[in-house]
Amino acid sequence: MLENSHRAIADAIGSELKLHVKEKNLLIVGSINPDSWGDFPHHTGKEYEILAKIFKARDLHLKNDDECFAELGNALHYLEDHWTLRPRTAEKHTEWEYSIDKSPLLDDDAFLNAIDEATMPQKAIDAYKKLADSLIKIKNEGLESWFDPSWGIWHKRYEWMVESYVSLVEIFTRAMIEEVGTASQWVRLMGDDIYVNESYPKFHESSFEEYIDQRFLDPIVSGYQAGVWSLASLSRPSSWSSPAIDLNFAFRICLEVSRYTLVPAQTIKEDDDWSVPRVSANEKGHYLKGVKQMPDDFFVPSISGPKAPSTPNWAVISKPIHKVSEERRSNLPKIKDELLRIENASIFQTATHSEFWEKLLKKAIDLERQKVQNTRERE
Ligand SMILES: [Zn+2]
Fold it and tell me: Considering the entire predicted model, what is its pTM?
């Protein structure tokens, strides 16, 4: 999207949310800045950064730090670019961006009309209209009309947690080997097998179960944070579009994300991650639970493979979090059993993995099988 379009959206959001002049200007500057940082292309692959920036903006806002507007502006920039269709050639892309810039921000009726009249197949029109209706409903009746604050964002599948666990072990091991020169030589001489067979089992013993259970049984985030992140994670329902559709979806999603990132804490019914600023562990231990998971857990999917950023490992489940927790807890033995019957790593192939990764995975599954066998023998 061109600078002018980013500016226009931030300006309109500032007016709609009745921000003070300085706050609005910070939002505008934040919305324009990322294009001067040179991290191109950033129309895709910024999904996790968008959420992290929204989270940071919320935290700053709760601490009355006006940098929150600039931080939110950064997130909006990437969100807006995310909603800019990307034709294959650079020239066509620029042309598309110029057309977006010439499109106006539309009111509800004109927005629905623009979708109806766009040159695209009926099923694309229907899909965009459904999404447009949800956004209009959220604008008029609030986020709660679409998202229940008792829901959470969950990791979808148990084996994907195993996959990200193994990826993390790989990353940490590689970093450790890089750091310790002698260990590096030792591993280079002996090969990766020495780590997999001698050092890894001890690590596995203390970390595997805890890592997987914690991430599968509890939501990544819940409450309003999950609602706002879900909004920010919406993706276009069709590869057809028009410049007016791109601009207005970007505007409407950014508007709601901004509204709920800047929502006053008092209006949130129950204290959750969205109503209490982030504090350190010794100040207020209980609050950290939801937040603590973010840096490593949240970013794991983007590390675990090239496909991960556009196909998140997680989903919103429309049931209260305690219910999902209970269900998952009672199904866990069966799920684990199925995993241990796997003969090859084919179910894990959501991304390309190294040979070392495959050795680690195989070892992890072997160790788990052994554990099950030992328990059976004792019984
Ligand atoms: Zn950009």
Answer: 0.80
